[in-house]
Amino acid sequence: MTASTIAAPAAPRGHAHTARGYARTFGALLARDLRVMRRGLLSFVARTVLQPVLFIFVFAVVLPAIGYGAGGPAPGGQTETFATILVPGLVASGIVLQGIFAVTTPLVMELSYTREIDDRALAPIPVWAVGVEKIVAGAVQGVVAAVVVFLAVLFVHGPGQAPDLDFGRWPLLVAVLVLSSLLTACLGLLIGTVLPPQQLSTLFAIFIVPLMMLGCVYYPWDALDALPWLQITVLANPLVYVSEALRGALSPGVPHMSEVVALAVLVVGTLVTGALSLWSFTRRLVA
Q1: What are the structural domain ranges in the chain?
Q2: Which residues form the ABC transmembrane type-2 domain (predicted)?
């Protein structure tokens, strides 16, 4: 059976037993995806932590040790170490990378070569709910990636270069982790429904690399006031708001974007991207 022959399941009638059936099916699909992630946990951890650990090792251990300035105090009279600026950015990059790739890569394969998505579309829940399940599964992987990256980079630093982090704003930290994971999973679903499989390899070169380099991972957005055109341009990058919101939660002493602005953008971005991705996902399977 092809996607074009799959009919949309009937809309829920609002009965309690129907809702329970939907919930059980949704839970089964989610459990299946999380089981797949658990079975590949070593691979998941390796590809999640390797880049951030190597990056903080070079910039917070090697460069200070050999006398270069990347590990020194921040410019503008700030006293924070480079690791204090870098840790929230690396956690943000871990969330974004895993949130996108955890949804996009398997979805592109399911829509093209394996056609596994046909089995999911035949599950006794609306097609859009299958897309929601993929968003939730991707968001869970984004949160796990954030924890793994944080633990990996927290203790990698040279003498006197330890990050100065504040965990007193944990409600803000939790809100940022959940919102940013949902946003990136929605973005992954949207990309997965529009990206041809033969162009999957170009996703990294033309989308991920600019996203990372201009996402305020390695420098705070406030420091870009020396380049006003760039400070405005990078506002189109969703990673900027994740990085800055995490700096507001973990290292409030570093000049950063207003937490209210960053959270508002994450909320609106999640709602808009989520609606677009579910519309594109449903159209791809039902039309």
Answers
A1: 23-66+80-286
A2: 43-284
